[in-house]
Amino acid sequence: MTAGVFNMAKVTLELPDEVLPLVAEGQDPVPGLKRRLAVALYAEGALSMGSAALLAGMPYMDFWELVTGLGLGPRYTEQHYKEDVKALKELGLL
Fold it and tell me: Which of 3, 16, 34, 88 is most exposed, with the fewest beta carbons within 10 Å of its own?
């Protein structure tokens, strides 16, 4: 993946008839499956929020609202903290 672009592959998936309505959005189950896969991969830490939003086919803020609504807020790492502290010091706010 480079700069917000995925190389795509086609996948064929068989689902039980009872499961399809749980993921289908209208007649096409693909958007619902992509959204659920994106949430799962984000929750596992395999994708960043931006990459997961891209996979889900959603704007970043819409995906953010989706995952925070599921109790999966953004991950704030020690590296993020260090970068924020450095920026605050450079701005004279710390």
Answer: 3
- Kindly state whether residue 53 falls inside one of the protein's structural domains: yes
The residue written with tokens 């399809």 in the block is: 20
HEC per residue, the chain: CECCECCCCCCCCCCCCCCHHHHCECCECHHHHHHHHHHHHHHCCCCCHHHHHHHHCCCHHHHHHHHHHCCCCCCCCHHHHHHHHHHHHHCCCC
**pLDDT 10s digits, 13-70:** 888 988 888 877 778 888 999 999 999 999 998 888 888 999 999 998 999 999 999 9
**Is residue 42 in a domain?**
yes
Work out how many domains the chain is built from and give that number.
1
Residue 11 belongs to a domain? no
